[in-house]
Amino acid sequence: MSLMETIRSKAKKAGKRIVLPEGTEERTLKAADILLNEEIAKIILLGNKEKIQSLAKDFGLNNISKATIIDPQNNPRKHDYAAMLYEIRKNKGLTIEAAEKLVEDPLYLSTLLIKNKEADGEVAGAGNNTADVLRPAFQIIKTLPGIGVVSGAFIMVLENNKHVPDGLLIFADCAVHPDPTDEELAQIAVSTAATARNIVGIEPRVAMLSFSTKGSAKHKLCDKVINATNIAKQMEPSLQIDGELQADTAIVEAIGKSKAPGSSIAGRANVLIFPDLQSGNIAYKLVQRLAGAEAVGPVLQGLAAPINDLSRGCSVSDIVNLVAITATQAV
Question: Could you tell me which CATH number the domain at 151-295 has?
Answer without folding.
Answer: 3.40.50.10750
